[in-house]
Amino acid sequence: MPELRKDPITGRWVIIATDRAKRPSDFIRQSVPPASTGVCPFDSGNEHKTPPEILAYRTSGGRDQPGWRVRVVPNKFPVLGIEGELNRQGEGMYDKMNGIGAHEVIIETPDHAATLAEMPEKQIEELLWAFRDRVSDLKKDRRFRYILLFKNHGEAAGASLEHPHCQLIALPVIPKRVKEEVDASEAFYDLKERCIFCDIIRQEGTAGVRLVTETDRFTVLQPYAPRFPFETWILPKRHASHFEEADAPTLQNMAWILRSTMRKIDKVLERPAYNFIVHSAPVQEPSLPYYHWHIEIIPKLTKVAGFEWGTGFYINPTPPEESARFLREAGLG
Q1: Which domains are present in the chain?
Q2: 242 catalytic, yes or no?
Q3: What would the pLDDT profile of 187-225 be if each residue is shown by its tens digit?
Q4: How many helices (H) and strands (E) does the chain have?
């Protein structure tokens, strides 16, 4: 059983994934299997190589058979376990609990070589519906306080398989970084009685210098103080704190805006590795007037090294105004 241990100085929780225990030699990176080997467990026809599916949108076939368009399965090597009790306890001055949670893989398409920039909008929309359906289901489990949706694309971004997929991890605690973002948003709201993200959308839409594109429902921008070159945010214009409450027209438009944004990034940066994270409010909270769900896309163009780890500062060599201009000029709306 994995453990969650709390750093007594910073309050940060760490997962000790005992089921993934490794010897020093195991940390040598292994190559991603080439597409031609036919060993990818996420390919259509290889359903028996994954744990039994949790959710699938199908054109044909039965459970764990070909014919699916989007498929969700438990991660074969989960960082947290679904069964058991939290069993919070102290160990002297330290706090720990059982590593209870959920770890799922959302297989985006049967097409091994597809990318978000190339998929049909309807395929991306179904992926977003899978996100929504799984979060809506898992939040019923009161042990889970935060559910993270993310995508690692490319080995430099942490992907171990080429086949397009995202991941979901449900946690029994609210991560420190999430709490900092939510608390800072609440402090702004207490002072000004406005959502800080709504203010950002209005200001960036008016100024235009960091704006990438927008629709009636979404704004895509380069944030004012980005940690990384071409860090890109996608924000819904209508205030909402929880992604899983998005309605059908919002998900439909989001599919278009996500595809458009990834096409721009691929063209300007020549198909980089990237991380994609859905920022949403803690799942057991009601709708929050001060927090605004959004997506952050971070191309892997620089490395976090000693200065960043030692200070929490980031060095970004590309001003966001320049990044936004390059992406706007890429066209591909």
Answers
A1: 3-20+39-175 (3.30.428.10), 177-329 (3.30.428.10)
A2: no
A3: 999 999 999 999 999 999 999 999 999 999 999 999 999
A4: 6, 14
